Amino acid sequence: MRDLAVCASLPRPEVDSLERYAASLTLQANAELARSGQPCRHVYSVTGGMLRLVRTLPDARRQVVGFAMPGSFIGLSDVTVHRHSIEAVIPSRVCVFDLEVLRDLRRRFPAFEHTLLERACRELDDAHDSMLLLARLAPMERLASFLLRLRRQMGIRDDEPTMALPMGRGDIADHLGLTVETVSRSFTRLREQGVIALPDPQHVEILDHAALAELATVLH
Known about the structure:
Layout: H1 12-20, E1 23-27, E2 32-34, E3 42-48, E4 51-56, E5 62-68, E6 73-74, E7 85-88, E8 92-98, H2 99-108, H3 110-136, H4 139-154, E9 162-164, H5 169-176, H6 180-192, E10 196-200, E11 203-206, H7 209-215
Antiparallel strand pairs: 1-8, 2-7, 3-6, 3-8, 4-5, 4-7, 9-11, 10-11
């Protein structure tokens, strides 16, 4: 995980120092790591599995704001309470750091702080893409963009056609602002057009990467 996580920006002695402050936590599928509104006291680094960030709207609708993959850090903002609930999509592992320890490291190691800033800028770009996705794109375009962004998050190369989809169709629907039925129909249409194959509900094979990219061309 050293090459994927934020700590990759630190020299080896500092990484070893950081790991001494870390506690490992295993989560079962759908377990809650943090709840919206709770005080922020820890930062989490995902080392296995997948987490989802969820916000419940005032009318009780559920919005999946994003998914956290191995290598992601969660909770690095300066807010005092969690803005989202953090849940495990599948059995997952995280390293837990005290928030004050991470703040001290940011002060002590400029390279670490610089990497966090780069991460924040990328997350801001992704947030802007998500706003456009929800506001303007048709369902198939939203799904195509989601699949491409997920591949990029997972570090999957273009010559690797198969990717895992650990989240259910309900999670994807709540992330894209669609109904489960619309997401299922969009998957079916992409399959019928020969753009993807669906070996099983937890995997998708990209058969025509150019066609998928063209559908998502507004964001890519």
